[in-house]
Amino acid sequence: MSTSLQQILGSTRSFLARRSPRELISKVYRLIRREGFGGIRRIFMDITLANIGYSDWVSRHDTRTEDDRRRIRHHINALPYRPLISILMPVCNPPAEFLGKVIASVQRQLYQNWELCIAGDASIDPLIRALLEQAARDDTRIHVSFRPFNGHLSVASNTALAMAQGEFVALLDQDDEFTEHALYHLIVALNDNRELDLLYGDEDKIDANGQRFGHYFKPDWNPDLFLSQNLVSHLGAYRRKIADAIGGFRQDYEGAQDWDFALRFVDVIHADHIHHIPHVLYHLRAIVGPTTVEIDAQQHTFAPAQAAALQDHWRRRGIALTVVAVAAGRCTTSLPLPVPAPLVSIIICTRNRVDLLRQCVEGVTQKTDYENIEIIIVDNGSDENATLVYLDSLRASGAARIVLHPAAFNFAELNNLAVQQAQGELICLLNNDVVPINSEWLTEMAAHALRPEIGAVGAKLYYPNDTIQHAGVLLNGVAAEHLHLGYKRSSVGYGNRACLAQNYSAVTAACLVIRKSTWEEVGGMDETFAVAFNDVDFCLRVRRQGYRNLWLPQVELYHYESASRGKEDTPEKCKRFLAEVELLQKRWGRMLANDPAWNPNLALSGERIGLASPPRISQPWRATF
Q1: Is 603 helix (H, G, I), strand (E, B) or coil?
Q2: In this structure, are 267 and 369 located in the same domain?
Q3: Tell me: the pLDDT tens digits for 288-304?
Q4: N or C, fewer C-beta in 10 Å, the chain?
């Protein structure tokens, strides 16, 4: 039996052994509901091929052979544009062993047109100065400037920047390492598009023995995630003339100086000039021991600098807001609302289940600090007496307008009908089985929905057992599913993404806020999607119009999923669902397989976030030569 077949069988047995027959049947049923039978193949590939550790993945998919290196050098020689790349590295008291390794990682670059600009920032250890002097004597591309006193990271980085002569500058920390093909990938991208001003790649960590772990595979340019974390980080490469024009690094932002620099850089360039390279280009050095404790302590003290950098960014856009540091590297922002706050039309579609409807309405009326609202309830043929009595009471008290539409269930049609009657500047779609947790949920959503660049705004939804039901939608190649589905409420998720505001291709309509003008601009929901994927299709059309869809983790609600509508458990419903999957694939097939909010090195599964094996990336040296 081959090793590959053994691995497949072993992975499959492991997956099956961890689940009861009832759970397996339930998962298969849900999978067919979401994606049709094409989802079975996708999840099988995910189980059998992506269930590998990172070390195995690196060995299979991210280790270059001598033939790869030969092809890369051949490709480099054939590229017409080969600019000088200046690498900036401030140095202050690093372990000499690691300093030697970081310099060696630059010298090993397969792309050789670089210069290493080192700012020696008054290291105490004389061995560091001797090592740097020797490196400069041995390699004329290494330039060293020794500062007479310690200026810390910002001042030292500016010293290195002043030495740079390249068209682009790349940042390198004193104990990290580049991958050997890091600069090559930058040059390939620049040959594809000479207009690029900012490039960034994926990253991982290495321990003292050079073992790789802790991968972070990033999305394509995601502006709101960038406002939640330094998405550029490592490896980031910036056009030097722009870096000079913005004044380099600011001294008062130590600990967040790279993020502040990137924020100011992004403010003056076009988003189309930013490019993500889906390859690991950078290894962060991570050492278990006292150093790790010191770094963690520093990160917590850096939170005020991170908040200040973000506040400055919004202030440059003419918006004064509050930034709250919630953890090391993580902040939340609360945008101000205009005065008076605009009317929000909250649309709730319902049928029977008065217990759910009452809980939802009371959550809106009693647990929401946003006051300028109107509630429109679309009744889709309720016939239970208790529900009818409750609807009459809401109508009589003026608490809600009741729209009757006793036709066959069509979620898109119900919402389109209600929006036509809505008077609000903002529309809020809210399932009747959703209940707010925090009172500011609508205030947060409304404030962001008013941003002119934002389309649909989504929320973080939990099942009643405090596991995640919705934290953004992943386009999975077949259809769509929810990211971090089933993760614990306290989980930060992959790359902290379960707790950071960010842009997704789509968010669920179970709780969605959007400007009415944008709704009308895209023509509302497509009623061909009667039950499934109407929100996904709608969000993708919003995105096609140039808007960014946004997910907010601070907006938390409980969701008793589809409790009033029932299950897809009849042949007619299954046939309708499969038709909707087919329509989604026909309309959005190419995008479904290339979600810009995800990464081609990650498996297309929101519930089982793991590595794609093989990854869905190109290796330009193999494609060309």
Answers
A1: coil
A2: no
A3: 543 333 334 344 444 78
A4: N
